[in-house]
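User: Some background: our group keeps a shared notebook of sequences we're curious about, and every so often someone picks one and asks for a predicted structure to add to the entry. Today it's my turn. The entry only has the sequence so far, pasted here. Could you supply the structure so I can complete it?
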Amino acid sequence: QVQLVESGGGSVQAGGSLRLSCAVSGTSPNILILTMGWYRQAPGKQRELVATATRSGGTNYAESVKGRFAISRDNAKKTVYLQMNSLEAEDTAVYYCNVRTWRAIGSTSDFWGQGTQVTVSS
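Assistant: Of course. Here's the predicted structure to add to the notebook entry:
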């Protein structure tokens, strides 16, 4: 059973930094992790994409976080990170980790973390 465990959220002042982590467990040799990414949902808002990273190193960022956030992954540790710098009040949200996997039986599946709260105060 594939599970994603997030950590690193918290409260920080505007201009500060936080580093989120998402560790994947429950995989087997016949399951390959493809894309890993982060999404967020602010109060009263819909979930939105923050950043994604492919297995080969390609990345994609929301325009609002370009230049401030950096996504990275450690394939050996099956962990994805989100380094958040120059945080703004608008970054306040629950951040969710997302992982897409490829199984040997010839199918893909998406999994989500439990979410971690990020609060930025000014």
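Suggested note for the entry: The chain has a mean pLDDT of 95. The first strand starts at residue 3 and ends at 7.
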